Queue: 4 jobs
Job 1
Amino acid sequence: MEQSFNEREAIGWMQENWRKSFIFSVAYVVLIFGIQYLMKDRRGYKLRTPLALWSLGLALFSAIGAYRTWKHMISILTTMGFKQSVCNQVFYVDPVCKFWVYLFALSKVLELGDTVFIILRKQKLIFLHWYHHILTLIYTWYCYKEMMSGGGWFITLNLTIHTIMYSYYTVRAAGFRLSRWIAMAITVSQILQMAIGVTLCILLIWWRKDEDCLCTWPDISFSFLMYLSYLVLFCNFFSKSYLVNTQKLKGE
């Protein structure tokens, strides 16, 4: 499947259809807030087994994808260096990971389903959650159709963190209690991912005129603003969830 996958057709399809990510995003917003309204006077569903299976499936997909993309990334780092690992566009057509890069882009539509579980279980839906899902979907499809420089790191890090995150969700949904420190560590890893993203965007500004690092201002601007907004929101989430609440508990 990996070897026979036609990445040129996939990239061509995405170039023609990437704007459909906006349609998915609008439908997503209408759906989640519509369901939330319908659930207002109803009791939440437990959904432990479906959620565990859902999270396990996404964890396994992320793990396989991370393995394949890291294999390519390590090869580039050891043979061509860090700059090429950021700048090169071979990531999108490499025989080892091209299939998983395309599936990664498509999976951002599937991941919108995370929010349905939150609403049906009547858990708190925060702005960061649905904002992150919408913008990541649009950015990922745009990134793929542009074969954007820096995309290799974005995809590889995202798959790696999602492997850990969805594994955590799987264990929690199965009914096991886990240390609060694990949740904190996952949030810290997400913050680190966003900080790396901002740093890569700054590097691309310096390198963009090089022949081997072609990228446009719209590409860099989109990436930088997205990563910066995520960095601020995740830091705020960490502060409110783990620092402020901990201080309140100690005060009580």
Job 2
Amino acid sequence: MNLLFLCTGNSCRSLISEAVFNHLAPDGWHGISAGSQPTGKLNERALALLASKGIPTEGYFSKSWDKLPVTPDIVVTVCAGAAGETCPAYLGPVLRTHWGVEDPSHVAGTEEEIDAAFEKAYAILRARIEAFLALPLDELKGESAGLKAELDRIGTQEANR
């Protein structure tokens, strides 16, 4: 089962989601990330944060949604509404859900405030991924309406921190 974490730039939130998902996912489940308008480079703070959590990112890069190595089964958009951000709409025949998280790379302030924004985005995304992986996935694989409902519910959760 392939999950695509999608946002506009594919440099921060979708990268964090891909790396965390692949770090935690069971065999047979694989996360990828992409953007509708990829920046072409990964956010250095996001990479440093993942490294500090012991989550590997080797081989990851900023890529376009029209150059995916596999067709996703589930698409999770992670963009949010701050600063008029437009979330891309994946049009393929897949299960879609939205897990919006504010972009920490757009936070201005002190180093501590910026670090806190990255930690918050990471915590929210990790909590949602853990909630997804805690579902009875084998049972839900064949029941798209039930899986969609669970994915949508998870997308409204904040981190438990």
Job 3
Amino acid sequence: MSKEQLSSLLKQHRDQIDAIDEQILKLANARANHARHIGELKDDGVIYRPEREAQVLRRLMELNDGPLPAESVTNIFRSIMSNCRALEKELTVAFLGPLGTYSEEAALKQFGEGKHAVVCGSIDEVFRTVESGQADYGVVPVENSNEGAVGLTLDLLLSSPLKICGEVTIPIHHCLLSKQTDLQQISHVFSHSQSLAQCHEWLNKMLPRAEREPVTSNARAAQMIHDLIAADGTFAAAIASKRAAELFNLNILAENIEDDPKNTTRFLVLSAHDVAPSGEDKTSFVTATKNQPGAILGLLEPLAKHNVSMTKLESRPAKGGMWEYVFYVDIEGHVQDANVASALEEVTAKASYLKLLGSYPQAVV
């Protein structure tokens, strides 16, 4: 193919892209107008409808014929929905900071850029910020596929009036970040203790002599490395995310250094309002029963009786007395589903305590 032919073909494709972009722009604005009209018709003041957004994303994934993968489709339309939502109101979302944490990544995935971020210093502060009305929503980690449940989040769910209105799953891909460019020069590695554990084998193989220094968060480690190296040139690195590398202007010396490539963290979205059914939902509750043989089996028997699938059972020490426990349960379905409602009614009758934590859409890719 000659240069002239190649140039002509490139121009044809670029002209088509320009024409398609014009159509996308017109359609995006048309969608925004409809979204704004819907906002004007609402009478409850709730801007964010996680059940509706989940339905939209699932429908688009079913319609998608490629070549864009499902994750790309959901990313594009989450951004569109976020910007349309912002025409009604810029939502305020609280999460565990500093910037560059996986909690921020979860908040970005769920709410997009059309939000105001409240960066909190602890999980407790995220709860307090939403409870006090200083934020519309909160995003908190609840469990990791390798490390298990986040006990503090479970304890706060027990005492807080907030409800779970959504869940987000984030694949955890760790990077080694530094101002240096030579991996072999690294003498100290800073990160959260869980991340150090999740990269244990890689560190043993690639940096066996480097000292491992635990800190409060991965993003804090990246910030420390930036400040430390800027000050005295120490040969140190942080285990953190790609976003942390961008935020703190660090080099990525290695990517995907986690020992388990399937490592995933689940986050919960907290709010003061309930969520309607989306068609593919979860319900979470916490319960307790008397300490006697077969008590838990009897307590959960109604789930099987009404064909309700249990996806999680987690025990935590109760705050009221020594060697007493509460049980956190996740089930498939919404509390408004007939079988779920019937099962929970029977569980409540058997339990010494039951608190419904929320019904919410199952995580979308």
Job 4
Amino acid sequence: MVQQVTKGIKISVDTTFEGTFYKNYKIQFAFGYEITIENQSKDSVQLNARHWTIFDALNHVVIVSGEGVIGKKPVLKPGESHTYNSGCLLTSPFGAMKGYYEMVNFSNTTKFHVAIPTFKLSAPFALN
């Protein structure tokens, strides 16, 4: 598990290898991840958007941006957390993801970024 705190918002990430399959005649490596967003600050906040950079061992880079996470824009009061599961496909058995969430602080209406720490994606069969 990797963790990072930015402006009182703690991000924790766990990953899993889900398997391989073929898509468009190419092998794909499927990875899942579980992210917990914990509000350790004294203010209520809302997650509005996400921005990802996804890398694989073959030097492919994919940028993904969008509103919320899995269709939600969670509001977190102090001490609350939100956990969700998602996944990605890579064209190699190794890779990594990193990014940030765009959030708003309800006490002063300021927008801020919360770093999502870089986390590795690796298929267990490919490890030495």
